[in-house]
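User: Run a structure prediction on this.
Assistant: Running it now.
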Amino acid sequence: MGASLSPTTFPAADSRAGADHAEPRRRPPPVVVLNPNSTQAVTEALGAALEPMRLPGGPAIECGTLAGAPAGIESDADVAAVIEPICDYFRARECEASAFVIACFSDPGIDSARRAVGRPVFGMAESGYLTALCRGGRFGVISILPEAVVRHRRHIERIGIGARLAADLPVGLGVTELADEECAWPRIRAVGQALREEHRADVLLLGCAGMAPYRRRLEEALGMPVVDPVQAAVTLALGAVLAA
């Protein structure tokens, strides 16, 4: 018989090894969320919706408003008007931010912004679409105005996810009108219900940053996942920062 082999014994690892010498991880710079319209109420609603995502020890989440911009980004002309100001805003804050989020569902200037700064830039529409694909087979979009639906469709085709779109339906309200809960909520709920029952969507996507206050209420009313795309974008931004 061959010689038996004695088991090799390794010293137990000391989980404290180096602990006394390790420097605590520094808190990353903030994630900057920019509302590219000039309506402060929208920015405040974003801040409230993002409160659960402010993690102890994680990067702060700062919400800003683009001064001098249209009150709502509702047309192609509005989109074009804010592209360069968005890039200027990001350039001015690049040294003090870890990532940026464009909080408009048209993702205005996202390609230009990514070229302008050396920090990750996330668009709420692109992030929302990709998150919705992870929550269901077919997603429905609740938009503000009919003109927005056409713009969204171009973006969806650009990303290449048109086959997963159930429908994109407008509520017929502008950005500033969304703050009127008595007017906006019944329309948002009715459009959400139509997307679920008539178009067979199994996840809904809010198509405007101004709809953020209605996400949880709509999810509870319809019994289906509802994605706030600003939350989706900040989630991706936090992941990119914390994994760096």
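The CA atoms of residues 138 and 173 lie 24 Å apart.
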